[in-house]
Specification:
The protein is α/β, with parallel strands linked by helices. About 35% of the residues lie in helices and about 25% in strands. It folds into 3 domains: about 180 residues, FAD/NAD(P)-binding domain (3-Layer(bba) Sandwich), CATH 3.50.50.60; about 100 residues, protoporphyrinogen ix oxidase, domain 3 (Orthogonal Bundle); about 100 residues, Alpha-Beta Complex (Polyamine Oxidase, Chain A, domain 2). The chain contains 15 helices and 20 strands. Helix 1 links the parallel strand 1 and strand 2. The radius of gyration is 23 Å and the shape is globular.
């Protein structure tokens, strides 16, 4: 896009083709705007990406999931024709490792016949991973969020454990796995505002909020469908087009410089991780003193942000090691198990038990594990896997890989909520998107999607957000009666 005539329609450039950028561009393109998306990589999806691993000769990714309360992300993927590319689960398995006295033990938590917030009550009451006192403590804690009552940003999840008298096993076998899975950080470093949001949406609000959805195709292929929708509405996506500098011109428009060409835009949405936004903003040329004040304020806020990592260990075995598609792994440095060959149906229905297993083991939010070598992580993962799936010890490991995402998410410790900036800045024509902006959600793909739609809405003066699913059952009455 070269310099545009002033009589032509306004030109919008979205920098970044992650979930936030795609959500912003899709909303604007479908609303009739002329949008160009600039992405420095050769594929879309941002941190939710896949690629052909040269050594393994396999398309690999770090598993990302959806849950039923991700209303905007679900709407975006449905609009892109991806409804049949997500496998939904009403039942989830929580595994305790084998001990000297018994083999691995499973607890199943699933949606039953009762109305919300009691939809999990039947399986929860029978779950052997928790004792009676643990279940009472969990129920006592959840009661605090009935009706959608918000948690305190001044309180950590660890402090909430103490205040609500959570038992050691309730923490270890329910709360900590949930906090790691949704906030990707320790309970000491996680704000109760966002934990409360997660607990309410997953367990209390309605019957569908806690359903687990897993894409059945590699992530870059998955989000490429959103990119195709943007292109189908007449907008552009330029790959390998990293923006190195932006400058506000005297006429109010923006000059964007990449390695091999310049772009002109009336409006710019920076849909990048916060550290990339920092670097670009720091070098941005602005006109007017108000812009400088805004830039200083934004950069100061982003100085408070930090990252939390995500590690995936990918394993290919010569035979099936379990019939489970996925599981929470308890009392282990490994947190999640995904049986990707089953989820993606790589083996056809009715295939023999000897069909190979491709599995992914996930370590969430562990800064201690990040410096470990590939060999150390692989040895730990294999040893842990056998504790949960003994057949893995008898199967032959064909190949393996380790993926490290040092900057997987941004952290939300207590007291940091006020640092999350709005999508509309005080600099005319400049907007922000990303899971780190103010979305009322933790650092998730749903937060990223909301941020993109909020930025698009701020730009054109309308809302693109999908209404959240309403409370149902008894939770509807509790929400209506909330004071």
């Amino acid at each position: 896009m070269s310099a545009a005539d002033r009589n032509s329609p306004r030109q919008t450039v979205v920098i970044g083709a992650g979930v936030a950028g795609l959500a912003a561009a899709e909303a604007l393109a479908c609303d009739g705007a002329q949008v160009t998306v600039l992405e420095r990589r050769s594929y879309v999806g941002g941190r939710a990406y896949s690629y052909l691993h040269p050594a393994l000769d396999e398309v690999v990714d770090s598993q990302h999931v959806l849950v039923g309360c991700c209303s905007n992300l679900i709407d975006l993927t449905n609009r892109a024709g991806l409804a049949d590319k997500i496998r939904w689960y009403n039942r989830q398995t929580w595994l305790e490792p084998a001990t000297a006295e018994r083999g691995p033990r499973a607890s199943t938590i699933e949606i039953g016949a009762l109305p919300a917030p009691l939809q999990y009550a039947g399986s929860f009451l029978h779950a052997p991973m928790l004792g009676a006192s643990d279940k009472l403590a969990i129920a006592r804690g959840l009661m605090e969020f009935r009706g959608g009552k918000e948690g305190r940003d001044s309180e950590s999840v660890a402090q909430w454990y103490v205040r609500t008298r959570q038992t050691e096993r309730a923490i270890r076998h329910l709360w900590e796995p949930l906090v790691l899975a949704t906030l990707n950080d320790s309970s000491e470093n996680s704000s109760m505002k966002y934990a409360a949001k997660v607990f309410y949406e997953l367990f209390l609000k309605n019957r569908s909020g806690g359903r687990l959805g897993i894409p059945t195709i590699p992530l870059s292929d998955f989000y490429a469908a959103v990119a195709d929708r943007i292109l189908a509405h007449g907008s552009l996506i330029e790959l390998r087009a990293g923006v190195e500098q932006i400058a506000q011109q005297a006429d109010g428009r923006w000059l964007l410089r990449s390695a091999d060409r310049d772009f002109i835009a009336d409006d710019v949405i920076l849909a990048l991780p916060f550290e990339q936004t920092q670097r670009l903003l720091a070098s941005t040329s602005l006109t007017g003193g108000a812009g400088e004040d805004t830039r200083r304020d934004l950069l100061a806020k982003m100085e408070r942000f930090a990252h939390s990592p995500y590690i995936s260990v990918l394993l290919w075995f010569d035979r099936a090691i379990t019939e489970l598609d996925h599981a929470w792994l308890l009392d282990s440095p490994i947190h999640w198990f995904f049986h990707k060959s089953r989820i993606r149906s790589l083996a056809s229905a009715g295939s023999p038990a000897s069909a190979e297993s491709y599995v992914e083991l996930v370590i969430s939010g562990s800064r201690e594990d990040l410096p470990k070598s590939r060999e150390e992580l692989l040895a730990m993962a294999l040893a842990e896997l056998v504790r949960f799936f003994p057949e893995a010890g008898r199967a032959k490991l064909a190949k393996s890989g380790v993926l490290k995402e040092a900057r997987a998410t941004f952290t939300l410790p207590p007291g940091e909520d006020d640092a999350r900036p709005a999508q509309k800045t005080a600099i005319p024509g400049l907007y922000l998107a990303g899971d780190w902006t103010a979305t009322d959600w933790p650092s998730t793909m749903e937060s990223a999607c909301r941020s993109g739609r909020l930025a698009a809405g701020a730009l054109v003066g309308k809302s693109f957000l999908t209404p959240d699913d309403a409370p149902t059952g008894l939770s509807r009455w509790l929400a209506d009666s909330k004071t």
